[in-house]
């Protein structure tokens, strides 16, 4: 354990660390600080009442697959009984005075404002869900799919037999989760998105075509290319979603149309880009001395893209926090932050997928030239019938067309092969080539896979090699 302290008149003075935000980045920062340093005093300010709800666990809660809604969290304030750790919820940081090294904090319960000093300030302020800028947002039963309060409100509507029609706006991860939970609750679900297919920013069309058909089979009514003009209703309650494709009956509307950085309060103090993301350097430092930024409110350095891109993932925030705290007291850190891959997974009824790195959409947005290959096979040798555990599996690989450096990939099946996504993440982070993946030494056992493992075969297919026999 490293020890940092100042001495004034022979008395040790603890370094004061202030953290803004109690989600993954804030939580991990506390863990790292306690693991690495002794003479520090940690204060975490959280504007919300609940510390700290895991919105990624909301679907499990909505489907009654958790012990209790109050358990769907990263940690509780009492998780840190140490005398040098102070967790204050309902406390909103509103301003930074970098000259005095202080922050202004408002106690949301009584309105009292205080000024708190820091030696190091870690910003992990996260993102806010987007609400469509249209008429009718103020109507009852128009909800957002994020946070403790919204989760409990949505759950009450799923359990209400008077609610028949639920419209979900946005067909990304959160929207798909909302749609599935609503279908399982017995509701008629309409899924709307402005782009041309569900999950279109995460997966290429070969995979989304499979998922779209599966959603329809499960009863989800999908409409794409939809431009929503208003939410309308009577008696202050929503009844319809109005759009260029007609009016959709809606007892409840769940908005899952993306997020925006929670940085409005930083304007004019901390440098932001044109979209409001906090600017930080390769050491995660902002333009202000001893003020750092991690997590969803920043752009993360992508190993695959070799530039900063928006990647709002818990795994990113935690890796950034681990790096930052390790080098927090170095004048110039010994090494820059290595970057992230950006990996995620999701179940869509009977299907499971995982993706890592870039895809066609994110590569184009980042200005990265890619080649791709789509591979379809069975999980195990063909002498094993499908009803004995040999389903179809699908792999999409993305790579540099000149060097063959792996840039991304995705796997999909009704069998849970999502762990293969971690293999892809490791390969991408270590900048392996397609050839490396084609020859990687994985195990073989016909109860699990084929003589060459799934990713071996997908890479060999990408290289144009003669197909390995399925017998």
Provide structural commentary.
The chain has 471 residues and is of the alpha/beta class. 21% of the residues lie in helices and 29% in strands. A 5-stranded parallel beta sheet has the order 5-4-3-9-20, with helices on one face. A hairpin with a 4-residue loop joins strand 6 and strand 7. Helix 1 runs parallel beside helix 6. The model is unreliable at 6-11 (pLDDT under 50).
Name its key features:
alpha/beta; globular; five-stranded parallel β-sheet
Compute the number of strand runs.
Answer: 27
Helix residue percentage = 10-25%
Number of helices: 10
Widest sheet: strand ordering = 5-4-3-9-20
Beta-strand content: 25-35%
Query: How many angstroms separate the termini?
Result: 56 Å
Largest sheet: 5 strands, parallel
Query: Could you list the spans in which at least 5 consecutive residues all have pLDDT below 50?
Result: 6-11
Rounded Rg: 24 Å
* Net shape: globular
Mean pLDDT: 94
Structural class, from helix and strand content?
A: alpha/beta
Describe the structure concisely for a colleague.
With 471 residues, the protein is of the alpha/beta class.
Protein topology:
Layout: E1 6-8, E2 11-13, E3 15-20, H1 24-36, E4 40-45, H2 58-62, E5 85-88, E6 91-97, E7 102-107, E8 113-117, E9 120-123, E10 127-129, E11 142-144, H3 147-158, E12 165-169, H4 173-184, E13 188-193, H5 205-217, E14 220-224, E15 228-234, E16 237-243, E17 246-249, E18 252-255, E19 259-261, E20 291-293, E21 300-302, E22 307-309, H6 314-326, E23 343-348, E24 351-357, H7 360-366, E25 371-378, E26 392-399, E27 406-413, H8 419-429, H9 434-439, H10 454-462
Parallel strand pairs: 3-4, 3-9, 4-5, 9-20, 11-18, 12-13, 12-18, 13-14
Antiparallel strand pairs: 1-2, 6-7, 7-8, 10-19, 15-16, 16-17, 21-22, 23-24, 24-27, 25-26, 26-27
């Amino acid at each position: 354990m490293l020890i940092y302290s100042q001495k004034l008149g022979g008395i040790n003075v603890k370094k004061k660390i202030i953290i803004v935000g109690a989600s993954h980045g804030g939580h991990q920062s506390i863990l790292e600080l306690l693991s690495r340093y002794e003479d520090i005093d940690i204060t975490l300010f959280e504007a919300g009442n609940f510390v700290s709800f895991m919105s990624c666990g909301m679907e499990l809660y909505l489907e009654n697959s958790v012990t209790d809604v109050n358990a769907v969290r990263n940690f509780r304030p009492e998780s840190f009984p140490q005398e040098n750790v102070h967790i204050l919820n309902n406390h909103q940081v509103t301003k930074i005075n970098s000259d005095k090294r202080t922050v202004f904090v408002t106690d949301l319960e009584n309105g009292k404002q205080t000024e708190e000093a820091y030696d190091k300030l870690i910003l992990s302020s996260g993102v806010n869900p987007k609400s469509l800028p249209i008429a009718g947002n103020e109507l009852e039963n128009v909800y957002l799919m994020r946070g403790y309060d919204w989760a409990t409100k949505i759950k009450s509507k799923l359990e209400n037999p008077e609610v028949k029609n639920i419209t979900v706006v946005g067909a990304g991860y959160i929207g798909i989760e909302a749609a599935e939970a609503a279908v399982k609750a017995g509701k008629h679900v309409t899924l709307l998105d402005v782009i041309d297919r569900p999950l279109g920013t995460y997966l290429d069309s070969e995979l989304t075509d499979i998922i779209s058909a599966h959603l329809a089979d499960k009863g989800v009514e999908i409409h794409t290319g939809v431009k929503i003009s208003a939410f309308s209703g009577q008696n202050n309650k929503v009844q319809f979603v109005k759009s260029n494709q007609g009016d959709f009956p809606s007892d409840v509307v769940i908005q899952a149309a993306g997020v925006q950085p929670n940085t409005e309060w930083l304007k004019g103090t901390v440098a932001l880009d044109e979209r409001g993301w906090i600017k930080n350097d390769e050491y995660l430092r902002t333009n202000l001395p001893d003020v750092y930024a991690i997590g969803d409110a920043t752009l993360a350095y992508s190993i695959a893209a070799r530039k900063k891109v928006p990647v709002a993932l818990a795994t990113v925030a935690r890796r950034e926090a681990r790096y930052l705290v390790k080098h927090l007291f170095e004048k110039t850190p010994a090494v820059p932050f290595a970057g992230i891959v950006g990996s995620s997974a999701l179940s869509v009824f009977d299907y499971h997928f995982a993706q890592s790195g870039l895809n066609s959409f994110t590569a184009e947005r980042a200005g990265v030239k890619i080649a791709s290959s789509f591979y379809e096979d069975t999980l195990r040798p063909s002498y094993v019938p499908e009803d004995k555990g040999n389903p179809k599996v699908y792999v999409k690989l993305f790579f540099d067309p000149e060097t063959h450096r792996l840039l991304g990939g995705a796997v999909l099946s009704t069998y849970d092969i999502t762990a293969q996504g971690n293999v892809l993440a490791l390969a991408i982070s270590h900048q392996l080539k397609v050839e490396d993946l084609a020859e990687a030494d994985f195990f073989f056992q016909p109860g699990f896979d084929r003589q060459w493992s799934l990713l071996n075969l997908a890479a060999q297919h990408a290289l144009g090699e003669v197909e390995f026999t399925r017998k």
